[in-house]
What we know:
10-stranded mixed sheet; D-Maltodextrin-Binding Protein, domain 2; 10 strands; TRAP_DctP_sf; 2 domains; alpha/beta; Bacterial extracellular solute-binding protein, family 7
Amino acid sequence: MKSKSNKIVLTYGLLANNDDYTLQMTKRFAKEVKEKSRGRIEIKILSPKDKDNDLALLERFRSGNLDMVRLPLPSAKKLSAKLSLMELPYIFDSEEEMWNVLDGDKGAIFQEDFQSKGMELLVWHCLGFRDFYTVEKPLTSVADFDGLILGVEEESRMGRALQLLFGKTRELPQDKIYKALQSGIVEGSENTIEEFARQEHNLSAKYFLEDDHSPVLDLQILSSRARENLSEEDLALLRDVSFSMALQERAYVKKMRVELRNKLSKRGVLFSHFSKEEKAKIKELLAPLYQESPESDFLRKLGKID
């Protein structure tokens, strides 16, 4: 963090390509912060040519070489262990409920944990939701999981969840799922609809269950060093602009998901949903998973376990 007289320069790190929407939104964020602070706060974005991976970006942030960072949840949880709670499947009944929690008072548990370490969680971003897709038949009830072999990413929380739903799992690197679906090694998998289309899993798996069981989240975080040098007014400005940009990004992601769904439907993908009754069964079956969580008290507040 550089400061000359009253001017503040904040370095911001994220992983993005030049045509990436997240990069464009970050540039708009930087521009609006500069305008609203009348040029006093400038945000310098890490060059997208930098090919750091998430963990390298995290280490640069930890070492004090970045003032702000946008990290995916798996990396961000290394800064706050409480974030692992957000990797549990089916903890929210809808996207609306998720935002009511994360943007509201109940979500303060995460902000408070960052603040206890001197950092600030400025805003949450959602890049989509993970869903299930299958080759032979659609998933329309919890009973359809029984005996089904699903490919899941290594070290995924879905393994334990699918055991409780009576399914079977095979841990595979993401780049091996395509061939596993083709060869019948697995009968289905789970990912976002964007990755489902990008990796052409729809060529083998024509049945797509839109259950939105796990959100794919990014977090925008301010370092402790930067926080120490900002006034409350400066912090409020960063929060307000961050939230404004996040709302725009959320709307964009939702719009793109609808458009992609329509394209996939025209290509023969059949979509299904769980009824409220089936969702209630899932909640009951996954209760042991939630009770095992270090943050089970928080899940009780959400009404996920008794």
